[in-house]
Write a structure and sequence with these properties.
The complex is a heterodimer. Chain A is an alpha+beta fold. Chain A contains eight helices and 20 strands. A six-stranded mixed β-sheet of chain A has the order 6-7-8-3-9-10, with helices on both faces. In chain A, strands 13-12-11-14-20 form a five-stranded antiparallel β-sheet. In chain A, strands 15-19-16-17-18 form a five-stranded antiparallel β-sheet, with no helix packed on it. Chain B contains 14 helices and two strands, in the order ααααααααββαααααα. The chains are: A alpha+beta, B mainly alpha.
Amino acid sequence: MSSVTYDHVVKRYTADITVVKDMYVEIKDKEFMVLVGPSGCGKSTALRMLAGLESITEGEIRIGDRVVNNVAAKDRDIAMVFQSYALYPHMSVFDNMAFPLQMAHMKKPEIDKRVRSASKILGLDNFLSRKPRALSGGQRQRVALGRAIVRSPKVFLLDEPLSNLDAKLRGQTRIELQKLHRELETTFIYVTHDQVEAMTMGDRIAIMNAGILQQVGTPGEVYDHPANLFVAGFIGTPTMNFVPVTTSDSSAKASGFELKLPKAVPAGKGMLGFRPEALTDKPSDVSTLEMKVDVVERLGSDQFLYGQVGGDAVTARVDPRMKVEPGDTAKLGLDVRGLHLFDAQTETAFF
Amino acid sequence: MDFSLLLQDIPTLLVVILGVPVVLAAYIVGGEYLVRRLPDKNRPQVRPWIWVGPALILVAAYLLIPAILTAIQSLESNNVDVLDPGTWGTNFVGFKNFARQFADFPTGGAWVAIRNNVIFWLIFYTIFTLIFGLILAVLFDRVKYEQFVKSLIFMPMAISSVALGLIWDFMYEYQPPGEPQTGTMNALVTTLFHHDPVSWLQDQWPGESFNLLNNLALIGAATWGITGFAMVILSAALKGIPGELLEAARVDGAGEITVFRRVILPLMMPTIVVVGTTLVIFALKAFDVVYVMTSGNYNTDVLAYRMYNQLYLASNSGGASAVAIILLVAVVPVLIFNLRQFRAVEARR
């Protein structure tokens, strides 16, 4: 149970290959923090530096108040669940879970007690004498979790633990992990490339791209107030619509429409962003878009329209009862509260 | 030029090139033809035998029958032509050949060779090679120029064992005290330790009945030649262990030695057993290094060399066959043990 601080951490392999650039983030005690980003963004490297499996080029990582830069992995008192589970194939499930406790020179009865209580939580009671190869993917995953929770570590690291599970099991395990986090009351740091996992599980999300931390915030914050174009495009499905605009004072002109912005911005080129659900089937007098619909997807609860507004591709998520066919021109209202404007050059958000 | 010598073998060549494939094809086609005439339910039992048949015939012709003939010959006096059935049994001497090999324990007959093979070679050669191979594989796994260094260690494998014996003859070269020492080992002993030069290959230290030193000198030379083989195979097994397993163990609180003992070693065990089996068989078959370096003198004899010695130098075919059978009997329990061990390891996987 401990906080974790990445204090301006840099990971450089050679002079020109830098995979983590000046990362600063404070992870609070008992927080569920998700590091998310596309593959190769440095999120796994960041986690492995915390685990002690990669050296830190510059900066400091602190667990609690203790700087761990030069502490060996075995002495950091952390537990890690690997993507491949990394179960010891020659040991039984019991021995796999007992291994970290044996390493801590715990007494036999205590080891026995802890492994049994962990296996009860995870529903592994009947498999303790089996070898990992005789288990299903989901069971192996739980053994990996069990091996991590038995020793009540200060920090719990999970590196894409769900990516080898099928879709149904992934949904279940997501919920189980959140329950586990509540029960254990430990700091969780979870790495994933899946923004749905990030949004559903994290107390806070740290979004990374190309080695740079883009934004840290609660799921609501990063969804409603993305700090830049990358975060706006990465979080949410279908992705946010981006329309190039020319701004002057508080109005923005796109290829197919013009609207008043809620805030004054410097004149110049910008990128207007709005989520598909910011479009409604009720044209408003403030801003109305005329969309030439190419494709209509009806999902029962939702209806997605894909088409063009002026020269720009736009996706809309509208009431499923709206009658619209491909080829139609739909008049859609745009909720200005859901508007985002990004600087065309720096890609940072004005609002 | 006269090519008649070349030409006169052409019919044989044609028979080999054309005849062998034709016979094999006829065998397979004929065999399949017969199998198809069998009732449906018998076919799966018969068909495999048709296909492994040629291999079984070859094994029988080159392994089984000679072994049986050797067994027969070991019971005959030495002037029997084993290939002429007319002479079989005419010089039957019972177990006399064996009695001679087992006479005068512990220094007479084949006892020295048996001791050297079954105690010195089997234990030290196997264990030295496994330990050095394992240490080198693990250490070089973390070296930057791994491929280059491993190639160097593997190099002795490319040297013929006769050349290897000659090289080590030079290494162990002995000159009387006071003379310049041309042998590397004795140069080290005299300059570094100020000790009298040691006659490595002749010195029967610690005693004539238990002469470890010169046997170890031979085993050392053979180990040098084979360590690269063990290292390469063990290194491949080491690289087959996923890195995440070792990382998981480190995060779980294991130090490097514990990681090796609890994770790396158990996972390498199947390979270690396979390499060990091979080395035990090599140890029991040891011949070339002994032949080149000492010719079995100074109590360094081994069974394979004794067999050669009996057959070609002493013209004692009965005695040679008896030694061959002793060697076979010595190998069989080891083979059975290793096969069992191998199966046990496989089952634990």
